[in-house]
Every structure is written in structure tokens, then in C-alpha cells.
Structure to design on (788 residues):
């Protein structure tokens, strides 16, 4: 980095000091942060326990909270569904070809677990885990990794007594000693070795996204191609948008476009788990194409909770009223649903999202 | 989501079967004949529409997008890499760009909880912890600090991570495209820290974002006081939403995960926070089962952006422009070598424009292609004398379980028909 900004900064500061009021401590910009503000934003917890609030939680409570808020992605036993992170197990795998990096096998500090659960989880509903719940979930994760018994209670007082198995498994960047000397010799320029052959080809794996013509996605068009043929991609998108069947199929009545648009925005809260649109597949949640009018718990290929399957067998159909009630408080409407979503408090949001879902053809 | 790129041996992966290269073969056959026209070109002899009637009026697009002929030049993602698109990454179309500056609109995105909308009016930055005066700044406050400017590359530590086990993806957009390079304007972080007054025991800062992931990273005070910037502008305009509007951290030369977007808090501590993003992720598992941590610097690297799998040679033999990008987190790129034979023989490429420290550097090599197959490689040498290693040299030290910091030499197989494949050679 050039020293120029530093010089500029020094000059600017000096200039500020001379021209402005006598501010021995900088420019006098900003205002004091209030204790309440610091408490609200500074929630970081450090390895030595700094920042940990008073509270406690036990394994069994943690198991319940985990099943409620975490298991839809991480699995009931923290084993990780689909490609969501595995949180338990993996002990002794770090030298395997496929290491399983979990809290028990890899993470060095328990503080990181508590901090991340409390600050950033659940995915899509961050900062909704209470202090005691964070203790309880952390206690459950210790249990699911075989590190504590089922009667264990984690508290602020005993927190730093818990050492994770891989605490000593990390060391600071040593590339300057172990790599740079090896890679700093004057490089060979001619006759550097025997003739080489191709040993691996990416095409044999066939995992690159492709354009419709089978080439790697984004391949530059030939410069001799006529102009009309180039924006094929754009044309396809426009055609799809203009296709009235795609837009209104499954729509019972004329939808308010503004409401549908608002609903599409609200749907961002759901999109991490529920796929929609052409070719949508089941993800963490079932795909929602044609959800209006669908019998609950019946989409093929999705593993519903027992509660949801039973609700469907009992005749629950996703009409507007049912969806409204479910979206307001999912766990109250279908007790035992896997869906961790806390619900949409605003009636407007619920109406909007249902209007949007109604536009999605099966 | 998972940050770990998948292995090479994807279950169910099958041999690619598409028909390749009819057009390119045709072009190859015509090469040489192109110098003489057999009949007058109607594009020249006939008056074209654009030469006789009006084009678009001013203000047709108050903020313009690239002309539709360039609609293929966009960010792209690889869906199977991650579980959710809001905690995911896409790739800069570096095969289609020239020069060194990456337009914001096609610069790769990495979000951990989606790109949020945070207005300047709602923006607050807090500095607290081991400081004399815990402070809150509004955006207006920040705009009153002296500004600096710098050009820097931002590279995800996982750039090239999918290639650890072997050649996997077809195209430098996917293999080296987790990178962008912008001109930033903002406030040196040291000025903000000075305003709060860092106490002697304050050895680390912890930078946090305002989004739901609150992605946080610890940065040693020495770096924080050196060239780290709180940036508001990129490439002459406000940061785009996806790049952290209205303010992000710029940490020149260091891995992209540390460039916290929607920056909301700088905590000053006597130790590293050891957050999820610097323990569970962004650490490097070594063959003995232990892991390197705090591998912040992005080592010297380069890649030929054209020809490459998404930029095949369609004009046949004769003059051929080979171009690419080189960079180093340790400073300036001193030299770039190019090999046409898989690393047996090398020649020095031309550095085009200025080689700036910790910024993308453009190189070119103009050759007279005889139409035979080439194994193209580039090799960056930075001002510290570090020479970009081969992938195998990295694997010999780090094994196969690394994910991050793959700065190995890339090989493209240019075939006589002009098509290009991502390969490894030995």
C-alpha cells in the first residue's frame, strides 16, 4: 500500500486542528455511544467468556428449542439435512479425504457456538434466540457431540470450563516460513521439464452451468454472428414474461398487481427454504408452485413432519383462510410442523404473500 | 449453506456430450481466406438504418445498462455449490472483461444472509470497546472526514477452491471469478479509530455488518491502522446495494470475507473474537489434521482470461491476443510469464498499464498461432519475489482438504479447432 493516504490523512488532520475549534482528540465528529446502544449492538462473545451475559440452559430444553428452531436445516440430531451444515459427529475425520468439520470435531471455541447461535441464527430469523435459549442450544450441541451428559446445565459460570476437543488444532498462518521460501526462487524459463500431458479434464465431470447450446454458461458469442441472433437470452425472458398462461394460471380471480408485487417482496423471507417458478424442486421446504388448493402434506418427494402429513390426511387444504392462519402462527396452526418460520405478524403481508402464491401455477 | 466446494467426483456426473465447435471449425477453415473479399460487403455498400435515421434520444435510459448485445456478460452462479441463494456466491465474468476495473454491476457477490437495503439516513457506525470515547457516527458524520482513494482487488478466499481436487469447472468466470477490482473512495479507518481513541491494550478490531448474518471478522490493529478504509464510493459512484451500500470495509490484499459490508460496528479488543467466520470457516485444514488460521493475505496469482473455455478462439490461426489478470496481496505484480506448452518454456508477457499494489494488473501476450494445440499457463511474480506455484506444489504442502487460498497455476488446453478446456497437466 502506498503511503500517500497516510500522508494525506496526516495533513488533513493537522489542517483540521489548525482551522477548526481546538479539538485535541480529532475532529469532534460523532457523538458518544449510549450504554443502551452498546448493549444492543455489542453482543460479541469471546473465547475467554468476555461478553457472555448471565443465564443458563440445560440439554433437554436445548433439544426442544433445537427441534423447534434449528432442526429443519440441521436435522434433529444436528446431523445436517441436505447440504446444510453438520453440527455433530465427525470426530477423528480431520485427516480423512472427506473430513466432517463439526463443533465437536473442528471448532476450537465454545464461545463461537454461543455467539453465532445468539447473533446470526436461525437462518432467516436472526436475533430471535433468547439468552437462555442460546445457552440451552449450546448445551444440546455439546450433548449431541458426546461431550456432556444429558443432565448438563450450561451457565455463564461454568462456560469457560468446557473445552472443545479440537481447541489445540489451530495454528497461526505460517506460509511465510513454510511456503514463501519454496516459492521465491528465480523461476525456470526454458526446458523446465519433460513434455507434459493432460491428466485431468473438467469436461469429464460435467458440472459446469451450461448455455442452451451446451457450451459453458456465458460463452462469448462469435463476433461474426448477426446482431439479431445475439440477445436470445433476453428474448426468452421477455417471451416468458409476456406469456399470459404462465402469469395467471391457477389464479382464481383477477389479482391486484400491486398486492402480488408486494407479496413477491415478502416472499424473500421464505425463498431460502421454498422454491418457486419453473422447475422448482423441493428444498428445505416443499416447493410452492400451485400451493393454493393443494392438500397439506401431500407433495410427492417431500418429507413432511408427522403433524403436517396427518393434517393433510385429516382434510387440511391450503385455501386462503388456512394459509392465512398458518402464516400468522405456523406452530400454533399445525402443532409439530417442521417449518421454523416464526410467522408473519402483519395481515397485509399475509394477504400479499397469498396473492403472490396464487399466481404460481402447479 | 456450506462454504466447502464439492469434490471432483460428483455422484452422477457423466461425460459431457454436447456437440462442440461447428462454428469454430468453420471459422478455422476460412482462416487465411478472410483477407480478400469476394464481393462487396453490403454493410459498407448499402446505407444502413443506423446511418440514415435517428438513434435513441438522450434520457432514454437515465442510468444506462450495457447494450443488449452484451447481455451474456453477467454474474453467474453455480447452483449446486450452496444450499440457499441468500447465503451464496456468484462469479465475475472476467473472461469477457478487459482492463482492470470491474464494473460494480457484474462484480461477484457473496452474501451470508442476502443483500440488504440500508439507507444513508438509517445508517449508523459504532466504535466501542477498548477506546477512550465510544462513538456513534451518522453517514453525514463520515462524509466530513478527510477522504482517501485506492484501487484494490477483493478476492474471496475460496476463489478456485473447487479446483483443489482437480480441474472441475469450465471457464475462468467459475474457476477464478470470485474477484473484483474497484477504485474506492472513503475514510481511512485509522482516522475513525483516532477519533474514538484506541487504548494501549486494544490490539484487534472486530468489524461487523448490519445484515442478519452480521458477518464479523477480527483484524489486527496494525493492519487496521495501515491501509484499511471505510469506503462509500466505488468506481466513481455510490457502492451498489450488493457491495455494501452505503459503507463497507476495504481491506487491501486480504481475503474478501474480511471486507465487511453494511459495516455497522467496529469493536476494539485485546484479543481476536474467533467468530464463526474465522474458526469454522476460512481456516485451512492441513494434511496432519491441524488447521491454519488467520491466513489473511491473498498470495500472488494470475489467470489467462482469454482464450479460456468461455472465450474460445473462433478466428483460426494467425495473430492471437492472449490476455489475463495478475494480482498479489503482498504488493505489486512485478512480472507475468506465459507458457504455451504446459509450463516447459515461458516468455514474459507485457504488463498493460500500471501495476498497482494489491490491485488487478492486466497482461497481454500477442502471438502468431500456428493452429496447433497449446497448453496455456500464466505465472505471476510479485515484488517480494514470490512466484505463483503450480497446483501440485500447493497440494504437496497442503494436501487435498484445503478449500481456501488456491493460487495455483491454471492450465487451459487450446485445441486446433479453437475450443478451450480446463485441464491439469503432468
Amino acid at each position: 500500500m502506498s503511503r500517500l493516504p497516510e500522508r494525506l490523512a496526516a495533513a488533513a488532520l493537522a489542517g483540521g486542528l489548525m482551522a477548526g475549534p481546538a479539538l485535541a482528540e480529532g475532529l469532534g465528529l460523532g457523538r458518544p455511544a449510549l450504554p443502551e446502544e452498546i448493549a444492543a449492538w455489542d453482543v460479541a462473545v469471546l473465547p475467554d467468556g468476555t461478553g457472555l451475559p448471565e443465564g443458563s440452559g440445560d440439554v433437554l430444553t436445548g433439544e426442544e428449542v433445537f427441534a423447534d428452531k434449528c432442526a429443519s436445516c440441521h436435522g434433529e440430531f444436528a446431523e445436517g439435512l441436505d447440504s446444510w451444515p453438520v453440527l455433530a459427529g465427525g470426530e477423528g475425520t480431520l485427516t480423512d479425504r472427506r473430513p466432517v468439520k463439526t463443533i465437536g470435531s473442528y471448532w476450537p471455541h465454545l464461545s463461537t457456538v454461543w455467539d453465532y447461535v445468539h447473533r446470526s441464527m436461525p437462518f432467516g430469523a436472526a436475533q430471535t434466540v433468547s439468552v437462555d435459549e442460546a445457552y440451552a442450544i449450546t448445551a444440546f450441541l455439546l450433548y449431541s457431540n458426546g461431550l456432556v451428559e444429558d443432565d448438563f446445565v450450561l451457565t455463564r459460570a461454568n462456560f469457560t470450563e468446557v473445552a472443545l476437543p479440537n481447541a489445540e488444532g489451530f495454528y497461526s498462518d505460517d506460509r511465510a516460513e513454510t511456503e514463501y521460501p519454496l516459492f521465491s526462487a528465480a523461476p525456470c524459463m526454458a526446458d523446465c521439464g519433460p513434455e507434459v500431458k493432460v491428466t485431468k479434464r473438467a469436461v469429464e465431470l460435467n458440472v459446469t452451468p451450461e448455455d442452451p447450446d451446451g457450451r459453458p454458461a456465458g460463452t462469448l458469442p462469435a463476433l461474426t454472428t448477426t446482431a439479431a441472433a445475439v440477445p436470445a437470452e433476453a428474448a426468452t425472458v421477455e417471451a416468458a414474461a409476456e406469456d399470459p398462461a404462465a402469469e395467471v394460471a391457477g389464479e382464481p380471480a383477477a389479482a391486484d398487481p400491486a398486492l402480488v408485487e408486494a407479496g413477491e417482496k415478502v416472499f424473500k423471507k421464505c425463498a431460502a427454504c421454498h422454491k418457486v417458478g419453473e422447475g422448482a424442486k423441493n428444498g428445505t421446504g416443499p416447493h410452492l408452485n400451485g400451493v393454493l388448493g393443494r392438500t397439506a402434506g401431500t407433495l410427492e418427494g417431500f418429507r413432511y413432519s408427522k403433524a403436517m402429513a396427518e393434517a393433510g390426511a385429516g382434510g387440511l387444504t391450503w385455501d386462503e383462510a388456512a394459509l392465512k392462519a398458518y402464516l400468522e402462527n405456523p406452530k400454533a396452526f399445525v402443532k409439530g410442523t417442521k417449518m421454523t418460520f416464526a410467522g408473519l405478524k402483519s395481515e397485509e403481508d399475509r394477504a400479499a404473500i397469498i396473492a403472490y402464491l396464487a399466481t404460481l401455477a402447479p | 449453506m456450506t462454504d466447502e466446494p464439492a469434490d471432483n467426483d460428483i455422484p452422477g456426473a457423466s461425460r459431457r456430450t454436447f456437440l462442440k465447435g461447428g462454428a469454430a471449425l468453420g471459422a478455422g477453415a476460412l482462416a487465411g481466406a478472410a483477407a480478400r473479399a469476394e464481393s462487396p460487403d453490403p454493410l459498407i455498400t448499402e446505407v444502413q438504418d443506423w446511418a440514415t435515421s435517428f438513434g435513441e434520444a438522450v434520457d432514454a435510459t437515465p442510468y444506462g445498462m450495457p447494450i443488449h448485445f452484451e447481455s451474456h456478460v453477467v454474474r453467474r452462479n453455480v447452483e449446486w455449490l450452496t444450499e440457499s441463494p441468500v447465503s451464496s456466491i456468484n462469479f465475475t465474468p472476467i473472461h469477457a472483461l478487459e482492463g482492470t476495473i470491474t464494473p460494480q454491476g457484474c462484480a461477484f457477490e457473496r452474501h451470508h444472509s442476502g443483500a440488504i437495503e440500508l439507507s444513508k439516513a438509517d445508517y449508523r457506525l459504532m466504535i466501542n470497546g477498548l477506546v477512550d470515547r465510544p462513538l456513534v457516527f451518522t453517514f453525514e458524520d463520515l462524509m466530513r472526514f478527510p477522504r482517501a482513494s485506492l484501487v484494490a482487488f477483493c478476492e474471496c478466499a475460496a476463489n478456485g477452491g473447487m479446483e483443489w481436487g482437480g480441474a472441475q469447472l469450465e471457464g475462468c468466470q467459475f474457476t477464478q471469478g470470485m474477484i473484483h477490482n474497484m477504485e474506492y473512495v472513503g475514510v481511512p479507518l485509522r482516522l475513525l479509530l483516532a477519533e474514538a481513541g484506541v487504548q494501549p491494550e486494544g490490539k484487534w478490531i472486530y468489524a461487523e455488518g448490519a445484515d442478519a448474518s452480521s458477518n464479523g471478522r477480527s483484524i489486527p490493529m496494525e493492519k487496521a491502522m495501515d491501509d484499511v478504509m471505510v469506503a462509500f464510493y466505488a468506481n466513481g459512484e455510490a457502492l451498489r446495494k450488493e457491495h455494501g451500500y452505503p459503507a463497507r470495509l476495504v481491506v487491501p490484499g486480504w481475503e474478501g470475507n474480511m471486507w465487511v459490508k453494511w459495516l455497522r460496528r467496529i469493536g476494539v479488543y485485546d484479543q481476536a473474537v474467533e467468530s464463526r467466520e474465522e474458526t469454522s470457516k476460512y481456516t485451512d485444514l492441513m494434511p496432519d489434521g491441524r488447521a491454519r488460521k488467520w491466513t489473511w493475505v491473498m498470495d500472488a496469482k494470475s489467470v489467462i482470461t482469454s482464450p479460456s473455455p468461455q472465450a474460445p478462439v473462433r478466428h483460426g490461426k494467425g495473430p492471437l491476443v492472449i490476455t489475463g489478470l495478475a494480482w498479489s496481496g503482498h504488493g505489486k505484480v512485478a512480472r507475468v510469464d506465459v507458457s504455451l506448452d504446459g509450463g516447459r518454456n515461458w516468455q514474459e508477457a507485457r504488463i498493460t498499464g500500471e501495476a498497482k499494489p494489491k490491485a488487478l494488473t492486466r497482461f497481454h501476450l500477442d502471438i502468431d498461432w500456428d493452429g496447433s494445440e497449446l497448453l496455456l499457463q500464466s505465472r505471476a511474480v510479485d515484488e517480494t519475489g514470490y512466484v505463483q506455484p503450480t497446483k501440485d506444489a500447493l497440494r504437496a504442502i497442503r494436501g487435498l482438504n484445503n478449500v481456501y487460498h488456491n493460487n495455483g497455476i491454471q492450465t487451459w488446453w487450446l485445441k486446433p479447432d479453437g475450443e478451450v478446456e480446463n485441464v491439469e497437466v503432468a
Observations:
- The radius of gyration of chain B is 23 Å.
- Chain B has two domains: 110-292, 301-423.
- Helices of chain B lie at 22-30, 42-45, 139-142, 172-176, 189-196, 221-224, 391-398.
